[in-house]
């Protein structure tokens, strides 16, 4: 068995691996960047090594630094987690060449499945059903356009080296193909240094079904059943569950057998996932489920498989990497109950899922379920990495109970001042399509407006906020009469109300007690400006006393173009003095793996341009101003 393990990752997956390693008596080494110097995974590990500046390209993605850290600390093995270098065959080979154990599949297996076009050809030869499409070497616009016409619209453009939803575009009509191809290639080049693409037929009622497989160095391969990951936003998973709802035993047997064939075709060792796309227009059927890709690593959603099988997949990884056979045979594995995982992100669904950064001054996660996290109260959510706060995992006897448990868990999340998506996740659990198991990969997009509408606090919450503000601002004379009630008014029969700022907007809130014996001064602005955070059904609200003084802030109304998040300017479409029309794209920011286009609020001229390609900007920095045309 491995005695000391270096984890070439960060956040919740690093913490997850450390827990299992510790239980097995394996010493752990963490690596960290400047931004992660005080991170939870660093404090949990037995040792920690600094590997560079905050950007991943200068730290977590530099294989030489990670291997050097393993050698310096005497670690025998490297576990890559997921993301970063986990599916980099060159890094895997470098680890092996350095005399270390690679906790993952053989580099040749990673290479075989790393490019989607080559993987599809290999799977077709292995008798695994694949989606109709084009994976040819001719990457000319003319050839790709002709192939798209031949396949028939809608089609899906996919980067051959893609993953995580990057480098994917659905195209509904021929007129949109060229622009979508250019956008897809640009993103693929930036993300994977490879702008080659393949085309696939778009499945009109798609379900995302994947099978967990595991192989060892003794020729054994087993599956640990399937997961359903159909609830996605922009091709990125939001909710995962196991088993897949509506999966009958015959279909399960067929898809799992296909997954095992796929793993054996590349002589697979360790944990891997075979991803399929299912045409669910007539339910889940074996003849309508097609291979998409193989992820040659542990998946983000592996906890739901662990919950229904009772297996610790990280333990299996360490045992198999140490040369042991898979601990259980296929006939010893079975499904027990139902599990759901939700990804809790630092983002604001009501504002286009903009990433949110800052210090988690308050963080209270549900205690009634499994929580996988790499942060705690006081941790910093950095703009440099994936904005995941935690994974919430529930396990119940049946699907109905699991949905109810997840809804309850999401409503119990309390975090502030960082924005988060708990209330959005709760709404997903209440969505009719999800409850009925008729969801597709497009369901979130189809219902996005309703799912992301700004949460509205209840009158009970407003009353509580008004009460708290009252006692924070009131003083009492020696006869116990209230005085100094700035901002409060007498309403009717000795009832009192207050003006509050709710997430920056003025609201009127009632007090829920009688103040008939109190002294009410003249109405004016509060001078006590302390903020309080309130949570309700997974949504967080910031409340403070209303002040009538102007804030001096710029807004879209005066043409100011403000950075909605800290990030990097990756595209600049205008220059000082340019004329623009309403809605025209001005520039693109990138932060936390997300692109955000800034557009002109109205027609006018670009003034005070303060942005440049490659420049880093802070949140609410004024990047430009649109001077309205005459008459606007």
Q: What would your notes on this structure say?
A:
Strands 14-13-10-11-12-15-22-20 form an 8-stranded antiparallel beta sheet. A 5-stranded parallel beta sheet has the order 3-2-1-4-5. Strands 26, 27, 28, 29 and 30 form a 5-stranded antiparallel beta sheet that branches. Helices cover 26% and strands 31% of the residues. It is an alpha+beta fold and 632 residues long. The chain folds into 6 domains: 4-103, Rossmann fold (3-Layer(aba) Sandwich); 107-131 and 208-222 and 244-336, ATP-grasp fold, B domain (D-amino Acid Aminotransferase, Chain A, domain 1, 2-Layer Sandwich); 132-201, ATP-grasp fold, A domain (Dna Ligase, domain 1, 2-Layer Sandwich); 337-454, 2-Layer Sandwich (D-amino Acid Aminotransferase, Chain A, domain 1); 459-545, no CATH class; 556-628, Beta Barrel (OB fold (Dihydrolipoamide Acetyltransferase, E2P)), CATH 2.40.50.100. Helix 12 (399-411) packs antiparallel against helix 13 (422-429). The radius of gyration is 27 Å and the shape is globular. Helix 4 links the parallel strand 4 and strand 5 (101-102). The protein is built from 17 helices and 38 strands.
Provide key terms for this protein.
8-stranded antiparallel β-sheet; 632 residues; D-amino Acid Aminotransferase, Chain A, domain 1; 6 domains; Dna Ligase, domain 1; Rossmann fold; alpha+beta; single chain; 17 helices
CATH topology of the largest domain: D-amino Acid Aminotransferase, Chain A, domain 1
Low-confidence stretches: 479-488, 490-495, 514-529, 547-556
Q: What sort of overall outline do the alpha carbons produce when their principal axes are compared?
A: globular
State the end-to-end distance: 73 Å
Whole-number radius of gyration? Answer: 27 Å
Give the rounded overall mean pLDDT.
87
| Share of helical residues | 25-40%
For the sheet with most strands, the description reads: 8 strands, antiparallel
Q: In the CATH hierarchy, what is the class of the largest domain?
A: Alpha Beta
CATH architecture grouping of the largest domain: 2-Layer Sandwich
- Within the largest sheet, what's the order of strands? 14-13-10-11-12-15-22-20
CATH superfamily of the largest domain: ATP-grasp fold, B domain
Counted beta strands:
38
Tally of DSSP helical segments? 17
């Amino acid at each position: 068995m491995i005695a000391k393990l270096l984890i070439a990752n960060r956040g919740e997956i690093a913490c997850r691996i450390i827990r299992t390693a510790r239980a097995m008596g394996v010493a752990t080494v963490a690596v960290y960047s400047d931004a992660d110097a005080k991170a939870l995974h660093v404090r949990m590990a037995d040792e920690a090594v600094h590997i560079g500046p905050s950007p991943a390209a200068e730290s977590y993605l530099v294989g030489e630094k990670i291997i050097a850290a393993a050698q310096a600390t005497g670690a025998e093995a490297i576990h890559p987690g997921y993301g970063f270098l986990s599916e980099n065959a060159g890094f895997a080979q470098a680890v092996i060449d350095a005399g270390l154990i690679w906790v993952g599949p053989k580099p040749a297996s990673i290479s075989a499945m790393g490019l989607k076009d080559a993987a599809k050809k290999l799977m077709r030869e292995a008798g695994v059903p694949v989606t109709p499409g084009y994976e040819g070497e001719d990457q000319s616009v003319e050839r790709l356009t002709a192939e798209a016409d031949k396949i028939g619209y809608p089609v899906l453009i996919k980067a051959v080296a893609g993953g995580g939803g990057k480098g994917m575009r659905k195209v509904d009509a021929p007129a949109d193909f060229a622009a979508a191809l250019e956008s897809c290639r640009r993103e693929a080049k930036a993300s994977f240094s490879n702008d080659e693409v393949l085309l696939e037929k778009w499945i009109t009622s798609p379900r995302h079904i994947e099978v967990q497989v595991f192989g060892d160095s003794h020729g054994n391969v087993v599956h640990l059943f399937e997961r359903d990951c159909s609830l996605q936003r922009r091709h990125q998973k939001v909710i995962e569950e196991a088993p897949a709802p509506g999966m009958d035993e015959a279909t399960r047997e067929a898809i799992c057998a296909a997954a095992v064939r796929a793993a054996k075709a590349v002589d697979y060792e360790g944990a891997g996932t075979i991803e399929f796309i299912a045409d669910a227009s007539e339910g889940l059927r074996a003849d309508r489920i097609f291979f998409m890709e193989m992820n040659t690593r542990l998946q983000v959603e592996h906890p739901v498989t662990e919950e229904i099988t009772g297996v610790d997949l990280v333990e299996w990884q360490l045992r198999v990497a140490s040369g042991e056979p898979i601990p259980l045979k296929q006939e010893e594995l079975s499904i027990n109950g139902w599990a759901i995982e939700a990804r809790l992100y630092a983002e604001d669904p009501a504002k286009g899922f903009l990433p949110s950064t800052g210090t988690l001054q308050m963080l209270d996660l549900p205690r009634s379920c499994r929580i996988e996290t790499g942060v705690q109260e006081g941790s910093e959510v950095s703009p440099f990495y994936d904005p995941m706060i935690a994974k919430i995992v529930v396990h119940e006897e049946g699907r109905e109970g699991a949905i109810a448990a997840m809804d309850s868990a999401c409503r119990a999340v309390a975090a502030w001042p960082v924005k988060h998506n708990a209330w959005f996740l709760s709404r997903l659990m209440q969505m009719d399509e999800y409850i009925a198991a008729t969801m597709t990969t497009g369901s979130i997009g189809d219902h996005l407006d309703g799912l992301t509408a700004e949460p509205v606090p209840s009158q009970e919450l407003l009353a509580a906020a008004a009460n708290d503000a009252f006692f924070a601002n009131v003083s009492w004379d020696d006869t116990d009469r209230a005085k100094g009630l700035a901002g409060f008014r007498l309403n009717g029969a000795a009832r009192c109300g207050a003006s509050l700022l709710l997430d920056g907007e003025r609201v009127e809130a009632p007090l829920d007690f009688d103040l008939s014996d109190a002294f009410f001064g003249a109405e004016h602005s509060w001078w006590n400006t302390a903020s309080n955070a309130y949570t309700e059904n997974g949504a967080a609200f910031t409340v403070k006393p209303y002040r009538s003084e102007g804030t001096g802030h710029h807004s879209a109304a005066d043409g100011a173009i403000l950075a909605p998040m800290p990030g990097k300017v990756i595209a600049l479409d205008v220059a000082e003095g340019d004329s623009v029309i309403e809605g025209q794209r001005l520039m693109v920011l990138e932060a936390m793996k997300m692109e955000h286009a800034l557009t002109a609020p109205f027609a006018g001229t670009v003034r005070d341009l303060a942005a440049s390609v490659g420049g880093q900007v802070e949140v609410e920095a004024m990047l430009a101003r649109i001077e309205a045309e005459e008459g606007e």
